[in-house]
Amino acid sequence: MDLGLTGKRALVLASSRGLGLGIAEALAAEGANVMITGRDAARLGAAVDAINARGAGTARFVVSDLSDKATPALLEEAVGKEFGGLDILVNNTGGPPPGSMSDADLSVVHRQFEIMVLSVMDITARFLPGMRAQGWGRVLSVASSGVIQPITNLGLSNALRATLVGWSKSMANETAGDGVTFNMLLPGRIDTARLKELDAANAKRSGKSIEDVAQAAQSQIPVGRYGAVEEFGSTAAFLVSERASYINGSMIRCDGGAIKSV
C-alpha cells in the first residue's frame, strides 16, 4: 500500500531513540523527509546518518530540550529553514519519574506539566496555521495505555498524559474541516530502553529480579510478548498518512491487547 507520504515534511519530537526514533524511521522509509529532535547531538547524528543511508526519505536533526521554554520557537525556526513548512507533527515526550500519585511532589507535577503538556500545545500551535492554510496536516500525539487503564506506579504519567486526550479530541473537532486530523497513539509495553528502565524500577520496588518482572508483565499481554519498535512505528506511519484521512479524534492502541477494557 502506498501511504502517500513521499515528500511529506515531518517533525518527530523526542526521537533520538525508542518510540520516537522508530516513528521517524518508519516515516522516512515511506519517503517522508523527517526532522528528529533530542538532547544528544551524537546520538541524533548517528540516527540521521543511518536513516539517510537507507534511501527513500531523508532525515535532519535539531538539538533541543522540551524542558527549555525556548524550544518551541527553536523548532519553528528550524523547520521553517529546512522544510519551509510542515505536514506532519508527531508529539512525543519522555515520561516523568515513576511513583504513586499520592506521593507526588507538586513542584515536580508542575514542571512535568510544562514539559509534557504545555510544550506540546505550544509546538502544535506554531505549526497548525500552516497546515490549515494548505488544507492538509496530521498531528499525532504519543501517550500511553495508562490514559485508558492507569498503570501502577506511574501515577504522574497517567494524570498528565490524560490531559492531552481532551486537548487532542477538542482540536480534532475544530480542525478536521480544514483537512487536519488529530489522533493519539497509545503504546502498551514496547521493547525500548524506557521499558527496561521501568522494569528495573519495578524489580527494585518489589524485590524481584528484572527477568521475573518482565516475564510476569508479558504473561498479562494476550499476544504473550512485548511489542517491537518497528510495529509501533508502522502503526504511526499509517495514522499520519493520506490513507488514514478519515481517522480523526481517535485513540489507537498498540498494546498487544493488554488493555482490559473494550
Automatic annotation (TrEMBL):
Coiled coil: none
Protein name: SDR family oxidoreductase
Pfam families according to UniProt: adh_short_C2
Protein family (similarity comment): Belongs to the short-chain dehydrogenases/reductases (SDR) family.
Residues spanning the signal sequence: none
Species annotation: Hoeflea ulvae
Superkingdom of the source species: Bacteria
